[in-house]
Structure formats: C-alpha cells, structure tokens
Amino acid sequence: MPAHTAQKTSLDVLAVPAFDDNYLWVIHDGRHAAVVDPGDAVPVLAALQAEGLTLAAILLTHHHADHVGGVVELARQAASDEFPIVPVYGPAREESRIKGMSIPLHGDDRIRIPALGLDLQVIDIPGHTLGHIAYYAADHGLLFCGDTLFAGGCGRVFEGTPQQMVASLGKLARLPAETQVYCAHEYTLSNLKFAAEVEPGNARLQERILNERARRERGEPTVPTTIGLERQTNPFLRATEKEILGSLQNAGRLTELDEVSSFAALREWKNTYR
Description:
This protein is α/β, with parallel strands linked by helices. It is built from nine helices and 15 strands.
C-alpha cells in the first residue's frame, strides 16, 4: 500500500505503512517533518527522502516495539545540519523502556515544534500501557493517540485497568467532534464487525461499515477517523447504550450496568472475537 496523504491543511499528514498493519505518521509542511511512533526507520527514511523533508522531531506515544523500534536509527540517519540532534519526545513514565528518548513528557505538558509552527498538548491516557500519552494539536484539529483509541475500537488493556482505560477514552471523546484521529493501526473493518455484533441496530454504524469496506477495496486507509464518528459508532465509547448493554447481558457477559463493568466486558469479548 503506498504512502497516503491523509489530510490537507496548512500541515499535511502522511501515512507511512509498516509491518502488517501499522501506520507511522509524518506531519509536515513540505519542508520540515515530525514523525509519530516510528517503529521502523526504513519506510520513514524513504518517505522523508521521497518528499524532500528534513526531520525536526520524533514523537512517541508508548514503549511498544512497533512504535519505538526505529527511533535510534531514524534519529541517526535523518540528522541534518539544521537538526544535528533530532529531539525525541515521549512518555516520562516509560523513559527507562525507550531507547533514544531525550525529552520526557507528562500529561498536560505543552510543546512546540518551531520548524513546523506546531503546538501540541500532551494528554495522559494510561490503560494500554501505564505511561501512554497522546498528542493533540488544537489549532489544526489533529490527534495522535497511538494504541488507545482506534477507528471503531480501542487498544487492549495490557498494563493498566479498565477504569484507567475508560477515563482515558473519555478524555479523547470530549475533544471537538471534528478532531481528526490518527491511530496507529488498520484494524477498522475487524473493529466494526464486532461493533455490529453488539449494536446491530445502529444505522450510522451500518453506513460506516459500507463506507470503510469501499475504502479498503480501493486500497485506501480508513484512518484518520474523527471524534464525532467514533462517538456515533465505536462501542467502546458507547458502552452504556441500551442495545450494547442488552447484547452483553444476552451473551451472559454482564451483571453490573455501570460504565466500567460494561467496558471491561466489551473488551474481554473483543479479545477473543473472530
């Protein structure tokens, strides 16, 4: 699948496919670039060269290898006279687990990448990992959320708790509806298959399934999505909707009707859903 320009604003976002289903995001203005979660340096270096871009920063959301495995090599090979040392931003709580990270960040920190004129707010979103963070560019309506919120789904709760994940997803769901969501994997069709299982009466969801299937048949990414679309169709942001609660109860997976219990039951079901 070729690299794909996902958004046209004063900044562009280039999707660089990697591994089986990862997207490595290159934010650029036609001259400078910041790269989000470079799990592999090779395709990112190729994209930078093809687009004539100078790397100004690397942004990391969490410590998993498919998000950070290319950091050291990328920073070394993409270094330039303008940026002889490429700054590498990442979650402070995972600093010891990420080689090459130079600027640790906490929730509510704000950073600026001067070469791009890009201001970013750091959002603390533990659950998938304990230190997971997201980057939100309010001026451009862009969110880079790693493996927490997916198109039609959410990440597995590996290190945190369901309570943490519900709170983290809630933070993201409260962003403006038009916010463009750049998650890190092409999981959309499988996520929506599960969503239709638990909320079959959601007409907007059925419409979305048709649209996303068509995009994949054309070889296009289904990402970015938007916060508004996720609120309407993502079961993990709709865990207390009546139909979803009914599906969980009918499947014998839910006894408590609170949001955390419903989310935990949904996530456990999705873990083994085929």
